[in-house]
Design brief:
alpha+beta, Lipocalin, ten-stranded antiparallel barrel, 15% helix, DUF6265 domain-containing protein, signal, DUF6265
Length: 149
């Protein structure tokens, strides 16, 4: 009886429970922006069933400034990448339009900049690399993160 209840619960919760870890689980951990003291740290929030990321800068090894909070969640039959940049207008939803085991593309054509956000996981020289970019209005800014934990 207990096993049947567990199975029914898992089926009912469907993608919202497991998909973020399956599809975007490679993000989990701490990533350092190459040649900078900027980081992204990703965790899975078991209670809310979302991936959470924070971007932060470290100055003088003791002063940490959070620059952005990010959520990846499943809603309305789609995944969304939702950044909230410190001091900006609040969270902005980007619909994840393409994804596979190592890549995703999130888009919001109505946003001023960026309109497109890309993340790509690659393994180079025994290092985990996250090649990210933001794009829009003919401009692209690329970021290379290396996993540190």
């Amino acid at each position: 009886m207990r096993i049947v209840l567990i199975i029914l619960t898992c089926v009912a919760l469907g993608p919202s429970l497991f998909a973020q870890q399956k599809e975007f689980g490679w993000l989990i951990g701490t990533w350092k922006l190459k040649d900078k003291n900027s980081f992204e740290h990703w965790t899975y929030d078991e209670n809310q069933k979302v991936l959470r990321g924070i971007s932060y800068r470290v100055k003088n090894t003791a002063d940490t400034t959070i620059t952005e909070e990010i959520v990846i969640k499943y809603q309305n039959n789609s995944f969304y990448y939702i950044p909230d940049v410190a001091g900006e207008q609040g969270p902005v939803e980007f619909k994840i339009t393409k994804y596979d085991a190592t890549t995703f593309v999130a888009e919001n054509p109505k946003h001023d900049f960026p309109k497109i956000i890309r993340y790509k996981f690659v393994r180079k020289n025994n290092e985990d690399i996250n090649e990210a970019s933001i794009e829009g209005n003919g401009k692209t800014i690329s970021y290379t993160f290396v996993r540190v934990r």
